[in-house]
Write a structure and sequence with these properties.
With about 575 residues, the chain is α/β, with parallel strands linked by helices. Helices cover about 30% and strands about 20% of the residues. It has 18 helices and 24 strands.
Length: about 575
């Protein structure tokens, strides 16, 4: 009789297996996969695991044909539940972990005075010549911060230390005089570098806010001149995964990956310290992070970093920028603005032919593509390129990242191409970020973002992400809460955004379990609790199918298990 190593018991184990069935029936008399939860079948009450995988599921706790003596037993508390480990299809692990361990924390809701106070405190504690780096300041503060007078105040607060502070879109940096000098930017007149270097309209002096290419240049300057901490890349990646484990995440797609991150992940994996499945997205045309190398050299290196839990199987292309800087590519023009006049729609980073060409290169190397598209024009261009590539016999997995704005005429094309829309929660419920990030768009456009009900009904596949640390909290339960209620999970901003686009609990959970696993190419290994798949599961303090949906965002992860090994306990 085969030995079971772990038994999990709960009032409800929601397997999240497809309605049509899963990876076969249970072994030894248990029940098979199958849908569960409200509107989708009956959850099971017991699970058995051996060798890191699910070997049986049972309604009555009996595992005929298996020896459970000596097995470790995990029991969910009364009223609690067990679910598959959650997924995140879009996170920036190194930035998140490095920020937590080594950088200055800024709250996006802080005022300019609070930001200045934080910088002054960091400067007082920093050794001579050290950088002050951190984030995230709120994009809603852009116009307040983009001022020569404010730049000088930050310069004084930094006390001579070079300063680099990231915003909550990750596309802008706030820098001071010391940093501008190191970057080689003229403090008297930087108009030749506009709009990437924001300047005073009257004098041409840099305001201290830089974006896009200048943002990348600031990151490169910081990376080249700061004093690195030995082992910081591995520590940063490990810390990010640790924080994700605390929210129940066991599978994550790193959304823009450099070589040092690949090396760090492989080192952690080889040492048995990587406590999640990690799919990477090597950077093709990095706009903001300062990775070296990027493009073809990085594509050619990627496969060499594959490991037991590391899958270097995607690449990242930035096709446009962000709405606040008027760099998102739109179908309808932005409102008139001194920087661009009337009729301006933003710009793409690549032509149709260039984008389709990169897709052919990636397919040749066995990679999928994640395309950053914040504007609806960028979404259409990405779809044009996928169609052109397919007409040439090129096929590859494709994620359209962010895509909060999509023209309805593109819905059938997305579904037909099988592209996945990679979504992040900051846009689909009322928040200060939503207001700031979309302030540059026409009213009609702002009222038509994140139309997930209509997109699911049109046959489009969605996968849940966080864009952490652009989003300050990677907790998937915030995203699930927002998908179901279209309200802010903290209650800090009242109201509901387009409640007609709400999803069911099961649909929302699928976006953060099976859909992430399928989108990342790991659907046969993870994403649901079925026989033969990894025993990745979480114990939570409430059953999401039985509570008031307005309480979903407060769900607490009590335990997280990866491959039948506990990686977090509250």
């Amino acid at each position: 009789m085969k030995k079971v190593e772990l038994v999990v018991r709960a009032e409800a184990i929601h397997t999240m297996a497809p309605v049509s069935g899963g990876a076969g029936g249970s072994v030894g008399g248990g029940v098979g996969g199958g849908a569960d939860g409200a509107g989708g079948g009956t959850p099971v009450r017991a699970l058995a695991a051996a060798g890191g995988k699910v070997v049986a599921l049972s309604q009555d706790g009996d595992f005929a044909g298996w020896d459970t003596s000596g097995a470790k037993v995990v029991t969910a508390p009364p009223g609690g539940a067990v679910l598959p480990g959650l997924g995140d299809v879009h996170a920036h692990l190194h930035m998140a972990g490095h920020s937590d361990l080594y950088e200055l924390f800024l709250d996006p809701d802080w005022s300019v005075e609070q930001l200045l106070e934080a910088v002054a405190g960091a400067a007082a504690a920093a050794p001579p010549g050290a950088w002050i780096a951190g984030g995230m300041w709120g994009i809603s503060r852009f116009r307040e911060l983009a001022s020569v007078c404010v730049r000088r105040r930050f310069d004084a607060a930094a006390g001579g230390h070079p300063l680099l502070l990231r915003d909550d879109t990750a596309h802008h940096r706030l820098v001071n005089d010391a940093t501008l000098r190191i970057m080689g930017i003229d403090l008297a007149d930087a108009r030749s570098l506009a709009p990437d270097v924001d300047t005073d309209p009257a004098t041409g002096e840099p305001t201290g806010v830089v974006g896009e290419a200048a943002s990348r240049r600031a990151e490169e300057t910081w990376e080249a001149s700061r004093a690195a901490v030995p082992g910081e890349d591995e520590a940063s990646m490990a810390r990010a995964v640790e924080l994700l484990n605390q929210t129940g995440v066991t599978l994550v797609q790193e959304a823009a990956t450099g070589a040092q991150m690949l090396r760090a992940l492989r080192c952690l994996d080889d040492a048995g310290r990587l406590n999640a499945w990690v799919v990477t997205s090597v950077s093709i045309n990095d706009k903001v992070f300062g990775f070296v190398p990027i493009g073809q050299p990085l594509v050619e290196q990627a496969a060499g970093f594959a490991g037991g839990r590391v899958f270097p199987t995607f690449a990242k292309i930035f096709l446009d920028g962000t709405p606040p800087t008027f760099t998102a590519l739109m179908h309808d023009p932005y409102p008139p603005h001194p920087g661009h006049g009337a009729g301006y729609r933003g710009e793409a980073t690549m032509s149709l032919e260039q984008l389709a060409g990169w897709m052919a290169v990636l397919a040749e190397h066995g990679l999928g593509v994640k395309v950053h598209c914040t504007g609806d024009g960028a979404v259409s261009l990405a779809l044009d390129a996928l169609e052109l590539a397919r007409s040439r016999g090129v096929a590859l997995p494709a994620h359209i990242a962010h895509a909060q704005m999509i023209q309805r005429a593109d819905y059938p094309r997305i579904a037909g191409l099988g592209a996945v829309i990679d979504i992040c929660p900051l846009f689909w419920f009322p928040s200060a970020f939503q207001s700031g990030a979309l302030a540059t768009l026409p009213d009609a456009t702002r009222e038509g973002i994140c139309m997930f009900r209509d997109q699911l009904d049109a046959g489009i596949k969605l996968a849940g992400g966080s864009d952490w640390p652009v989003s300050p909290n990677p907790n998937p339960w915030w995203g699930i809460h927002g998908l179901v209620t279209r309200t802010n999970p903290t209650g800090e901003v009242p109201g509901a955004y387009r409640p007609d686009q709400a999803l069911t609990v099961r649909e929302a959970l699928s976006l953060y379990t099976t859909n992430v696993a399928d989108a990342a190419g790991l659907g046969s290994r993870a994403g649901s609790l079925e026989v033969g798949k990894a025993a990745d599961f979480i114990v939570v303090d409430r059953d999401p199918f039985k509570i008031d949906p307005l309480l979903l965002g407060a769900t607490r992860t009590l335990e997280t298990w990866v491959g039948a090994r506990q990686v977090f306990a509250a």
